[in-house]
Amino acid sequence: MMTRRTGLPKYLTALALALALVACGAPATPPSGPYARFLKGDESVRKVSQEGPFTLLDIDYSTCCGYLFGAQLDYQRILYRDKVLVKKVERVEPLRGFGRPALVWPVPLGDGKLQVLSEHGGKAAFDTVDLGLYSHDGEDGYYHGYPIAPGVRYFPSNGGVLLSGFPLRVQKLPAGLDCCTGHIGQLAGTAPDGSAYAYADSRKEPGAILVVDADGTKREPVPLPVTPTTASAHDLSPHTPLLRWFQSSFAWTKNAQGKWNAAPVTAAPQGKGVAAEDVFLDVPAGYRRCFATDNASCEPGWRLLQAGELPTLFKDGYVPPYSYAPPQGMRAFGAPVTALIASRIGYGGTGYYLYVDASAEQVVATFTRRLRERKLPFVRVDECPRTEYGNPDCAAQLGERLGWRHKLDYSLEGALRWRPETGAMFVLPTIAVAIVAEEGGGTRVSTLARYPAPPPMRDN
User: Fold this and answer.
1) Which end of the chain is less congested by CB atoms within 10 angstroms, N or C?
2) Are 262 and 279 members of one domain?
3) Half-sphere exposure for 262 (CA within 13 Å, toward CB)
4) CA angle, 208 as apex, 202 and 209 as ends, to 5°?
5) What is the pLDDT of residues 81-105, one digit of tens each?
6) Domain check: are 329 and 438 in the same one?
7) How many other C-beta atoms are found inside a 10 Å radius of the C-beta of residue 256?
8) Rounded Cα gap, residues 80 and 53, in angstroms
9) Is the previous residue joined to 280 through a cis bond, with omega within 30 degrees of 0?
10) In the listed set 266, 291, 311, which residue is the last one of a domain according to the structure?
11) Residue 16 lies in a domain
12) CA 5, 7, 9, 13 torsion: positive or negative?
């Protein structure tokens, strides 16, 4: 019987092994340059930076075996007064504005701990800082916190942590919201006496605000018009524009219960109609009006629904947080209002769901009439032609009526891909709305997405 062998011929295998042995046996390349005495073989300096008495070397290290079998590593080395202080470390950044030269880096496998190196009393001093956070938000150049004031860094999370010093102090902020209304937990402002904090749902495009006391007690969240923050050359960090936006847009006030709240500096304009309609028709102006019961700047007469109310609408007695009952006799889109809920939406943070006591056909007809009365352009997604897969294809209508000539950003496109089986779906210049019949009777008007005008698009 013949046995068929596969693989490299013996002489090729032997040749490859010989090459590997020769390469690995080659002498290391001796270091060169002004920092050669601080390097070992095959190390080279890619970058040098100085922070007070500390010299930070960014090092490239080529392991043995050359191009075919080797690997390229990079790490950092810290020199202090012409001596190696830290031989090998990663992700080191300057810690500036704290009154003394300092460097900071994460403790490997430290679950949120940071190592801070500074000079104190003419000597190098190490401090280990426990943020109490498994992870926090960051970006290139700001993985170790955002400077927000001299000697203060902010580590965003759901609330987050403030690091100040020297001496170094950690202050854990109360948690924001990370549930029903979406994530509202980016620090936007601090009350005059430091006993409350304002959080936004986005650092770059805030669209909701929430006030939380230091003990964790929360005010009701308030959705807002989505407003892009603007950067300045004088900003301490990319978080500064959010702080400036809040400071210029809101004033700290006390509510009827003596609790801190944030009130808009400029009063909301008089809407063109009922507030419960405006939030679905005229987003820039409509979202200047709000429904929170503990904020004097919001619409009067609304109240929070209690557990067990409206059993035909909310099953098993569960009422979602921030569900509101309207003032007596309130009507929207030609029908009695049952409830209004502030909630997380598919795109754009926080929006509203409105429940009215009328058929979906009636509400769709009135909604369409309101759009035409206000001369608002729109596209009825449920009336667009369908692709061979049954999905609506509205490209032509969106281009003709809304001027959207390119494909939408993938996230927004996904939020608008929903197809109601009953009722209708409307795409407006700054909002997408679905109107569908409820199983227990009545109709729900839902915010699917909020976006700027024009919305984010892609080139292909």
Assistant:
1) N
2) no
3) 29
4) 100
5) 999 999 999 999 999 999 999 999 9
6) yes
7) 8
8) 6
9) no
10) 266
11) no
12) negative
Q: Which uninterrupted H or E stretch holds 78?
A: strand 72-80
Q: Are strands 177-179 and 182-184 parallel, antiparallel or unpaired?
A: antiparallel
Decide if pLDDT at 269 tops 80: no
Q: What residues are paired with 149 via a beta bridge?
A: 152
Domain that includes residue 224, residue range: 179-266
Judge if 192 and 228 occupy the same domain: yes
Residues 235, 301 within the same domain? no
Please give the helix or strand (H or E) that residue 38 lies within, else none.
none
Which pTM does this prediction carry? Answer: 0.86
Residue 74 and residue 83 in contact, taking contact as beta carbons nearer than 8 Å:
no
Cβ–Cβ < 8 Å for 406, 317: no
Q: pLDDT tens digits, residue range 343-361?
A: 988 777 889 999 999 999 9
CA distances from 431 to 4, 71, 332, 415 (A): 68, 51, 18, 11
124, with CB counted inside 10 A (0-12, 13-18, 19+), is: middle
Residue 233 φ/ψ region, left for φ over 0, alpha for ψ in the -120 to 50 degree band, beta for the rest: alpha
Structure tokens of 453?
């005008």
Mark which of 266, 291, 324 sits at the end of a domain.
266
Residues 112 and 118: their CA atoms lie apart, in Å, by 19
Q: Is 352 in contact with 180 (CB distance < 8 Å)?
A: no
Structure tokens at 224: 């807002």
